[in-house]
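new request in #modeling-help
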Amino acid sequence: MNALATPPKNFEVKPKLAANGEELGELLEVSMGPHHPSTHGVFRMDVVLDGEKVVKLKPVFGYLHRNHEKIGENISYLANMPYTDRLDYFCSMTNNWAYALTIEKLAGLVVPERAEYIRAIMAELTRLQNHTCLIGFFVQDMGALGTPMMYAFREREKILDLFEEVSGARMMCNYMRFGGVRVDVNDEWIAKTKKVVADYSKFLDEFGTFLTENEIVLARTQFVGVLPKDLAINASITGPMLRAAGVNYDLRKVDKYGIYSRFNFQVPVGEHGDIYDRYMIRVLEMRESIKILEQALRDIPVGPVMDPKAKLRGFRPKAGEVYGRVEAPKGELGFYVISDGSPNPYRYRVRPPSFINLTILEDMCLGHNISDAVVILGSVDIVLGEVDR
Amino acid sequence: MLGEQIIKGMAVTARNFFGSYFSKNRLTTVQYPEERLPQKGNTRQFPFLVYDGDDAEKGLRCVACQICEKECPPKCIYIVKSKDKKPDYKGQPQIYPLTFDIDISVCMSCQICVEVCPFESIKMNTEFELSTADRFGDLLLTKEKLAKPNSYYQKIHPADAAESDAVIAAEKAKAEAKAKAAAEAKVKADAEAKAKAAAAAAAAPIAPPPANPPTTT
Amino acid sequence: MFDQLDQIFVNALHWLVGFVPEVLRPLVTPLICISFILMVFPAFFSIITIFERKGIGRIQNRYGPNRVGIPFTKIRLAGFGQFLPDGLKMLTKEDIVPRAADKLVHFLAPVVMLIPVLLSYSVLPFGKNMTLADYDAGLLFFFAVGGAVEIAVFMAGWSSRNKYSLLGAMRAIAQMVSYEIPLILSAVSVVMIVGSLKLTDIIAHQNHYTFGIAHWHVFTPWGFIGFVLFFIASLAESNRTPFDLPEAESEIIAGYFTEYSGFKFALFFLGEYLGMFAIIGLGITLFLGGWTAPFSFLAWIPSWIWFFGKLTAIIFVFIWIRATLPRLRMDQLMNFAWKFMLPLALINILVAGIWHYMAADWQRWLVCGALIAGAYVLLGRGLMQNQKLGKRIYRYAE
């Protein structure tokens, strides 16, 4: 018997104990990830299984940590803008907006009307493509062989084309600036966007017939991974997850940042807080986003897109501290910045929605199957770029 | 009834299956090397340096001010200033970059360098087929590889190039006007000084103060 | 002439055997047939993998493989040359055996997987007079041999000493054992009507026509629901979506063959597909008339073309389902097998009995059809409402 033949250490099974300390059987500890097909990147779940039932789950992250906050403190305010793209790389536009909003608050810049409209359009397009991708990924986690995901990506590509045309990049847009947006959109772009938005509800209808009431989807998602209302509030969950749990809290309505007070839209609210609610809330939110987009594209005024007071080189906001937040597609995305009057922030901190939404993963997964754990993780909607920063 | 929605879902996939043979909307893939998508509006890939005229060395707009090097978020630009000066497009002597390297394996195509450049000298390229066999040498773009003529810029981004040309032209016109004004002023000052000197010489034998020639700034 | 074409393989066999001395003929004849099966079905498998990739690609609005054609030329054959590099890649990949694996069992599992699958081909009639071994209890033989696949799956899962493999193997055993019951029970109704376990007899029973339409079993109420049950159970038996839990990629990587690579993985892949073909072939024989034509005016087309045509058509449905549906969960899978399929299969046996004893007129259709439809609707409703599943209405906050 050579040393190589001994089994590796991690293949340990733990005894399962009854209340009186009696051994009932064995628990299996599985380390799912970071190289697992459905952990959405490099996330790891340390799962303890009783048969296939999850009895303990420990989320482990940090594999994608890249020092975002410290880098932000060492480079100028402007140079940090492209780094915010890389937080949640699905929604760089809302990340830009949140950061720009924060620094505008700090420096007292006023965003021109047209830029506000462009920002709202970009944010809602981002929300559309993020939610589309999410439902695609999430049905793939349930085992559909990539078909919903490919349909989602097909539609997302149209929106990314719009982004590329204006900002120059599909995902890492780096589009917003303190006091406005970098480049103006032209009428041709607005016409194209109108067409994409008009076609989008057709896609949503098709996707709805494809999956929304599919018996297997219903069986896999209803009453699975329930997140109770009080737990959601206590764990400071935000975004569609919180609304699916039945809490009416949408920063677009609460803060009315930007020009959201001008648009007529509603906030869908779930009842059970299970996976199906989370999925449906996102679908309904997309419909509301389409409404907002239609209004914004109709009303967009002409004018400048940058605050004339804003300057690119040598930008030094006055000393102070500020917290700015927006309703990103995944939840409340906030930036906390302390300025000491120098060209770079003294302290820079991000409140990432997916990181905070991930904290209650164990509570949702306990007692469910390992297959459900994967789907529950998918329904949380995480992006590891934002979780690990 | 059980299975009804499953059948409906299968009808959707069947529609997509047949649709992919007829509708371009359902089959969006582009067969890349043979087919290419048209370039989109403001597409950007990696930076390049613009030069005017035909000579990359002489017409380079960059004056090695190092603002882009300082502002670059991932710090992928490396500039060494020259000791001597050479005339720029306005005809003024300027410092020029001895070395201007961009490591495009580090560059994240954010366009910050383009925005902060006060001299319209660094712009974004649209070239994306940059794969090489040499991971270090070929991905480090030197000044020679980065320099592209203004006509190239006009070709890839016509609207932006026109804007930048207008800025340059305005600068040039301003500089010329200024130089002209300065020259006129000099002539005038010289004439005045001469007249004064003559008058002074006529009036009293005091040495006239040397006329300060206005410096071009 | 068409008869010649129909019997071309049979005649070729006789012609080949003619060269062999009389004494050796009983030995040589099966050998030739076996080599034929060993050639045809793996070749069919390699073509089907490309069809599957291209079909799923089209369903997903992609092209699928469309580049590889004949090597060293510019002819692309719409990508159908892809199976050659795929196969070469599989063969030349490094064979990795985990350090802690039980090496002998790990090595044996793919072989044990393949052999029963190949054995089950011996009783399938691929065409008129084209059965390798026409046993009296051919159906029984098929199910008996098919049951051995589970051992291979468990061997693979256990010997790999990998937690995902173990979970996959456990799931596979539970699933295959559960679905074997509706599979066999749905076949029982056919046996009851035909009165024979011999597969050629079952085909002969379906090979006659009224008003030009064949008497396939699928065209009767009990045969239709029997076919649906058989179809679902064969999806589960061959581990295809929505029953692909043993190899659920998004949950347990690749299930029981997570730790297999290279040629062993290729053997698993081959075994799985050949198993699928075999079980579809049986389904065709039992319910879709085997190698017979659906309409009498089409009966001139050679029988083996009908068999392979039907096989390909059903494989397309498998691919279509695979590209559409998400996967069930383990407990739902079990619920579905024991609370829906098993009762329905038992009711189907009853209906087959009623069908057999009632006079052959429209009343028989009405009674049997009503029984089947009622049972299906009630059982289906029970399955969904038991878990309070259904559509939801959402409210908007103001």
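bot summary: The longest strand of chain C covers residues 395-397.
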